[in-house]
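Dear support,

I submitted the protein below through the web form. The confirmation email said the job was done, but the results page showed an empty box. After a refresh the structure appeared. I'm attaching both so you can tell me whether what I see now is the final result or a partial one.
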Amino acid sequence: MRTEVADSALVELLAQLRRIGSEPVPPAELDAAKSALVGSFPLSIETAGEVASQVAMMKLYGLPADYLRTYRTRLAAVSAAQALAAAKSTIRPSQTLVVVVGDAAKLYPKLQKIAPVTLVDVEGKPMSPSDLEAKAAAVAAPLDLDLSKLVARTDSFAVMVQGNPLGYTRRALEKTPAGFRYTDQTQIAAFVQQSSEVTFSDKVEMQALKQTGKVQGQEMKVDVDYAGGRAKGSASVPSPQGLKTTAVDAALPAGAIDDNAVQAIVPALKWSPAAKFTFNIFSASKNAVRPATLAVTGTEKVTVPAGTFDAYRAELTGGDQPVTMYVTSAAPYRVVKIAVAGTPLEIVLVK
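What the results page shows now:
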């Protein structure tokens, strides 16, 4: 959702929440919604991988064994009275807690007019309105990198969910005449198939991003060139409303890193038990630059399929979700494990 219309969209959302619990859904709307859901369901179980994903979801939520077999029949039988009763028992507009994620400096004045607003940073720590001005003005300086540590390598990872393997990712850095090429091939069950390629110079100046794949059945493609202090191109990525295409054209501060290339530069960072790195990351899908911080919060032994390693535990904040990286405490500073905050997802080094 665009920042410019977030407040009006929220007003309408709250109005619809009040309405759905106070009046029956019109027959035509209910029939259309049921038909769409009943008709589209087979498309979600076309392949063996998609069926396996649905079965895994059933197990995770403790649903009955006949849930998938009877899903369409039960859904088609829902009446307007049942929908209204469910809405009344579960939706409480006066107690609604709405989480809005975005440019707080622009959103805060608008949202204040609708309801009380609590500001927090990406780690959930309280902020004040004055913090927004300081944060907006902050631009991270280019990283101080040990470029001799950037060498060709390939790492293979398993993607784990609650301890069970659900996919893989293969990441490789190779030398090119113009600098480096960093590639990432990822597959997570039937949900995500993605291929990324980031090229950058010997001085880690971004050159291009090429990305293709599918996310939950929706095609995605990102094609961005970096030159003359700007990022230009296009990004077509999935959203709840369908494929969203963004024209990419943004000014970049010196030293900005494409958000797909952060792991590529990890070996070149100057690690220590108290290390803290602040840098700018660029997200093509959002057409925006954001400051990010990667800070060591401790050391520990980490056991993954590739072995047991002494590692720094480093928290990466500033992106869409906080991420914990486990990086070997001795060169070549390999990432051996990644954990995404608030999810059961872990990425562990296999070889």
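Response: this is the final, complete result; the empty box was a page-load delay. The mean pLDDT is 89.
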